[in-house]
Amino acid sequence: QVQLVESGGGSVQPGGSLTLSCTASSRISDLVIMGWYRQPPGGQREFVASVTNMDVKKSADSVKGRFNVFRNHAENKVYLQMNSLKSEDTAVYYCYAVWTQSYWGQGTQVTVSS
């Protein structure tokens, strides 16, 4: 069983930055994929970005060039660095990991508003 705990959410103005972190209870080098999904108000959960244990990254077109996902093995964390935030980035952000199955965190709220 893998437990994931997110932190770093909050409120920010458009154009601002936030960095989310996700701490895993297992050694992250064992986790084949780690990344982030988000669910906007009234919307469906959607893929944001992921990074494999071989450091191969993917991201949604809507966040390319603005968001960066990366692992810190020493801290056992995965991060989502978010720049140039827009109001449409407002959502609950969920960390996930894939090992023998998929695991999810509880989510952290990100609100982008002036």
List keywords for this structure.
single chain; 114 residues; mainly beta; seven-stranded mixed sheet; four-stranded antiparallel sheet; 11 strands; 52% strand; globular
Fold topology:
Elements (H helix, E strand, L loop, with lengths): L3 E4 L2 E3 L5 E7 L8 E7 L6 E7 L4 E3 L7 E6 L4 E6 L8 E8 L3 E3 L3 E5 L2
Parallel strand pairs: 2-11
Antiparallel strand pairs: 1-3, 3-8, 4-5, 4-9, 5-6, 7-8, 9-10, 9-11
Provide the residue-averaged pLDDT. 95
Alpha-carbon Rg, integer = 13 Å
Secondary structure tally: strands: 11
* Topology as a string of helices (H) and strands (E): EEEEEEEEEEE
Reported for the largest beta sheet, the result is: 7 strands, mixed
End-to-end Cα distance: 40 Å
Low-confidence stretches: none
Class derived from helix and strand content: mainly beta
* Percentage of residues in DSSP E strands: over 45%
Q: Roughly how much helix do the residues carry, as a percent range?
A: under 10%
**Number of separate helices:** 0
Shape summary: globular
Describe the structure.
- With 114 residues, this protein is an all-beta fold.
- The protein has no helices and eleven strands.
- The strands form two sheets. Strands 2, 4, 5, 6, 9, 10 and 11 form a seven-stranded mixed sheet that branches.
- A hairpin with a 3-residue loop joins strand 9 (91-98) and strand 10 (102-104).
- It is globular, with a radius of gyration of 13 Å.
